[in-house]
Every structure is written in C-alpha cells, then in structure tokens.
Write a structure and sequence with these properties.
The longest helix is centred in the C-terminal third of the chain and has 18 residues, at about 320-335. The protein is globular. About 45% of the residues lie in helices and about 15% in strands. Strand 1 (about 5-10), helix 1 and strand 2 (about 45) form a beta-alpha-beta unit. Helix 2 (about 55-65) runs parallel beside helix 3 (about 80-90). It is built from 19 helices and 15 strands. It has two domains: about 5-160, Cobalamin-binding domain (Rossmann fold); about 170-480, tm_1862 like domain (pyruvate-formate lyase- activating enzyme). The strands form four sheets. The protein has a six-stranded parallel beta sheet. A five-stranded parallel beta sheet has the order 2-1-3-4-5, with helices on both faces. Strands 6-7 form a two-stranded parallel sheet. The chain has about 475 residues and is an alpha/beta fold.
Length: about 475
C-alpha cells in the first residue's frame, strides 16, 4: 500500500427531496493539488457527493487506489456513514485521518466508535497542517499520533497561518459540470463552474450559525492577496470554467479586501460572471457598484426573518429594525445594478411563531429577490442553542438540516415545520408575476434538457403534499426514544 486517498462522505438517506446545491470539497481539492505540487504525489479523490452507492461503494473506490492513508471529510449529518467508512478502511490496514465539520461536532458531542474508527482527527481548516503531516506519516510508520489526539481532546482548531501559501485547486471538466450552480442566471446558461476562496473565517458571531453550513471555520478573518485571488480566477477560466463561485462565508465583509479584488478583476478585464455570499448590511453603494463592475451576477443573502426581536435574539443584528431597512435598501441597490439575489430564510427559529413566518413570507414577496431558499432551523453542537435542548434531543440534533425536523421553537409544532417550509416555497414561486418575470430573465435555461429536469424536480418538491410530515415526526420520536 502507498499513497493517499481523499474521501468525502455523504448522508445515505439524502435530502428529503429538498433541492440541493452540490459544491466541491475545497479542502480536499487543495490537498489534492498540494500533494502533487509539493511532493509529486497523485492523491485519489473519492467524492461521495457524486458517487452513488453509499459507504460500501466509497470504501471500494478508496481501496482500489491501494492507499496507505485515507483523509476522510464528513459533516455532523453523516457521522454514521463516516465512521462506517473509516472502520472498514482501518480494518483493511489504512491509516484514517478525520477532517471537516464532523471533528468539531465530536469535540462537543462525543460519539460512539469514533476513536476506534480514526487514527487522527484534525479540527478546523487543516489543509496547511496536513500538507506537512501526510508525507511524514507515509515515511514513518512509528509516527506518534498522541499529540494530535491531545489537541483534539483539548478542542484545538487548525487554521492556515498564511492562506496564500495554499495551492490552487484544479477542477476536472466533470467536476466543473457536476458542481454547476443550480439556479438559472439571466443570459446564456452557465454549465461549467469553478470555486474560489478569497478568505477564511467570519468575524460575525450569529448564534444560529453552525460550521455545518460554513465554508470555513473560525471567527478571525484570514484574507488572501487580491492579486493571487485574481490569478486563480483567471487560471480557472483558462481551464474551461464559465463562471466562478466565491466560497467565502461572506465575501463583502472586509471592505478594503473586497474592493481590491474587484479593482484587480476590472484592471485585468476579467469579465467572468460570479456569485458570492453576502450580508444585507454590507450592500452599500460603493461595494454594490464595484461588484457590478467586476462581474457579479448573483448574491446569496442571509436575510433569515423580518422579525426584529428574532434578529436580535440570534445575534444577526443589534437592531432588528435597522437590519430590515438595510435589507430593503441593499436589495434595491442590487436591482439597480442588475445583480440578482437569493434570499435565505429560516423557519422554526427558537420562539418563532407561525404569524412571524407568515410576516416573513409577505416581506419576501415585497423584497422580490430572484430566488428564495427556506431551511428549517436546527440546533447543532457548536451553537449556543444546543445547550438549551433536552438531553435526548441532543443526539437526534445531529440529523441533516434538510431531514426530519426536531422542533426547538416551542410556538410551532415539529410536524408543522415541513408544511410551513413548502408553503413558503409554493406561495413565493407559484405566483403568476414571479413566473412571468423569471421566464423573461431566464428563458434560455429552459431550452436545455438539464434545465427542464431541474425545474421539474423543484416543482415536484413544492407541490408535494405535506401529508408525510406526521410520518417524519413519528420517525424522529422513535429516534429520540
């Protein structure tokens, strides 16, 4: 056995029908590129998000590479699958290394068979550490792992000290196509996407935000050189990408850094369309104008709710009423500059009522973003509300955030949340005004079989009766019991 295999694990049960954006495992892609560039090693990447069949198929794909080491990335919502894969690989004589959000989860919520499954576990953004560690593990069978377990037990999280030293990920044609952004954008359909991280960490400390949905870890912003970021964008376009997705948790947060990247893209005449994550309170005139000039086509905005007290409770804003105004002004600026938007909303927040969900839906219709995404709130071990859950629910809280809901909002019954989510979607998307406006902007997308299939899948999800919700609630109760 020799070499390294990189494995991303998925949840076998799937997403419950909710539309899902497939995106690359950037940390594994960085490791793949770095091992080749620095050590001449051709690491094998097995991506469970793209490879059907579950743990047996993923393990078979990993073992086919005859690895000495397996680096396994997983999340809270697929811990059982990750442990099953690691146990099988370790039984076959492969040294197993855990990375990804799963490690942070187990630090706070100990999990059976974890130490049995993994030889090492590194929390946080561990790419820099692993690029130095993996060659040592390959060369020295007696390498001491006690120090890394001690760091795990003490809650240590790794972070790249100098992010610009990390190598540039390389995407194959198949990956660029598989990871295409799922929502249509105006103009020519964009089928091939590459992903770029310009900074790691997020300085905001929202009480509802989990590393399950984060793109990086830590609350200290660690930025890359804007020239290097523009170099990477140019290289991805030269490799065949048609559009770029900036993967920062919030791309606009550091004004100087963001404007420098936009200036560099404009200076070089890099006119690639791109999308990014942003907060409504970052959408001032200067940053929105710079984004438009640099090629921004769509921003994903964490709006969450219209209710001021909930915004303040979740730490999204110090003054909820001001957040509402900033959101309205920011959306208006985006529309004037021709930049699309996805409004991200939550239902089932602690203490949220059905009337407050209804008010948020009506407000979303007034804001009129190009798209909405609605998730059911869930507590995870790395957010403050986890400690407020009754002890039996803390284990069940590990379920995927698209899966059966566990209610932490006492004012709304657990089995009502999936229905509220679908109702939000139906009443937003199935309006004649929305469909006509969307058709005018994006009709080209529906001239292709892929676009038609995606639209039909979303329509089936929206119109599906919520009659299955009681069954989901029974399943959750059985899990808790």
């Amino acid at each position: 056995m020799k070499g390294v295999v990189l494995l991303r694990v998925d949840r076998v049960e799937g997403s419950g029908g909710h539309p899902r954006h497939l995106h690359p495992a950037l940390d594994l892609k960085i490791l793949e590129a770095g091992l080749k560039a620095a050590h001449g090693m051709a690491a094998t990447l097995v991506d469970g998000w793209l490879l059907p069949g579950g743990p047996q198929a993923w393990v078979a794909g990993a073992l086919a590479a005859r690895p000495r080491i397996a680096v396994i990335k997983a999340e809270t919502w697929c811990l059982p699958e990750a442990i099953e894969c690691a146990l099988s690989l370790r039984h076959a004589g492969v040294l197993t290394v855990a990375i990804g959000q799963q490690v942070s989860h187990v630090m706070r919520a100990p999990t059976l068979r974890w130490r049995e499954a993994f030889d090492l576990a590194l929390a946080g953004d561990a790419e820099e550490e692993l690029l130095a560690l993996l060659p040592r593990l390959l060369d020295d069978d007696q390498f001491s792992r006690l120090g890394y377990w001690r760091q795990f037990e003490q809650g240590h999280h790794f972070a790249a000290a100098v992010p610009q030293r990390l190598p540039r990920p390389v995407f194959s044609d198949a990956e660029m196509t598989a990871f295409a952004f799922p929502f249509p954008l105006p103009g020519k359909p964009l089928r091939r996407w590459a992903y770029v991280l310009s900074a790691s960490g997020c300085p905001h400390r929202c009480r509802h935000c989990s590393t399950v949905v984060r793109k990086s870890s830590g609350d200290r912003l660690r930025t890359r050189d804007p020239v290097q970021v523009a170099d990477e964008v140019a290289a991805q376009l030269a490799a065949g990408a048609e559009a770029i997705a900036f993967e920062d948790d919030t791309f606009f947060v550091d004004r100087r850094h963001f404007l420098a990247i936009c200036d560099e893209l404009v200076r070089r005449d890099i006119a690639a369309p791109w999308i990014a994550n942003a907060r409504p309170d970052e959408l001032d005139e200067e940053r929105v104008a710079a984004a438009a000039a640099a090629g921004a086509r769509l921003l994903k905005l964490g709006i969450e709710t219209v209710t001021p007290r909930l915004l303040e409770l979740m730490g999204k804003a110090r003054h909820g009423a001001a957040w509402k105004l900033q959101t309205e002004q920011g959306l208006a600026r985006l529309k004037r500059q021709g930049i699309g938007s996805v409004g991200l909303f939550l239902v089932g927040l602690p203490t949220q009522t059905e009337d407050e969900v209804e008010a948020t839906l009506r407000w979303a219709q007034e804001l009129a973003p190009d798209y909405v995404q609605v998730q059911i709130f869930r507590s995870y071990p790395d957010i403050p509300w986890w400690q407020d859950l009754p002890a039996p629910l803390r284990d069940a809280g590990a379920a995927y955030h698209y899966g059966p809901s566990l209610n932490t909002a006492a004012a709304i019954a657990a089995d009502a949340l999936p229905g509220l989510q679908r109702d939000f979607y139906r009443r937003y998307y199935l309006r004649a005004g929305f469909m006509l406006a969307h058709g005018r902007r994006c009709w080209r997308h529906y001239c292709h079989p892929i676009g038609i299939a995606a639209a039909l899948a979303r329509l089936r999800y929206m119109v599906r009766r919520a009659a299955s919700a009681p069954q989901a609630a029974q399943g959750v109760q059985a899990f808790v019991d």
